[in-house]
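User: Please fill in residues for this 160-position structure.
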């Protein structure tokens, strides 16, 4: 076999693959584009992202439960029991929430916060309030400090 100059051997993949180390390098080089494609395709989400959008979704679910079987749906049961019961349940959950906050129980506070939000949404459904009404009010307030807002309120002349 005729002797191949060193410079040519360097560019010959077949030769290079036969050498330990060099073969690995070549393999890595060739695999790179495929790896990049795999990285570029995001994995399909198996469950919805845990964001505040859950509040809108939960509202829609609770609305859909209105008038359905109270034996099957807790929301339907609560809604069928009327405004006073709904408000009472919200109040109970709020108290449980503040108890956990004062006790410094972080995990329990998270759970109770979820209870409060769920019961608040049931209260909105009963009262005919749409979440977007509340989001609009929060947006209107955005950027206004509570201190400034309070100072701008008209003073009650009868206040002591
Ligand atoms: N987020 C909640 C949620 N949070 C709390 N709860 C229920 O709220 C109830 C609170 O328990 P309590 O013992 O305090 O209330 P209670 O059983 O009414 O007790 P009483 O005051 O009547 O004695 C429990 O049954 C909880 O399971 C909830 N029930 C439902 N949801 C959501 O609402 C969706 C629809 O639920 P259903 O309407 O049940 O289909 C569900 O898929 C969830 O996403």
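Assistant: Residues filled in for all 160 positions:
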């Amino acid at each position: 076999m005729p002797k191949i100059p060193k410079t040519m051997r360097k560019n010959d993949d077949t030769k290079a693959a036969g050498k330990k180390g060099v073969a690995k390098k070549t393999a890595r080089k060739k695999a790179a584009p495929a790896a990049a494609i795999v990285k570029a395709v995001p994995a399909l989400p198996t469950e919805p992202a845990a964001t505040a959008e859950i509040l809108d979704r939960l509202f829609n679910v609770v609305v859909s439960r209105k008038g359905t079987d109270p034996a099957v749906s807790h929301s339907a049961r609560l809604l069928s029991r009327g405004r006073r019961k709904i408000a009472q349940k919200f109040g109970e959950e709020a108290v449980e929430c503040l108890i956990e906050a004062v006790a410094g129980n972080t995990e329990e506070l998270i759970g109770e916060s979820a209870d409060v939000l769920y019961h608040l949404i049931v209260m909105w459904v009963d009262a005919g309030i749409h979440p977007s009404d509340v989001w609009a009010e929060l947006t209107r307030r955005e950027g206004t400090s509570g201190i400034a807002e309070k100072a701008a309120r008209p003073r009650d002349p009868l206040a002591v």
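For context: The radius of gyration is 32 Å.
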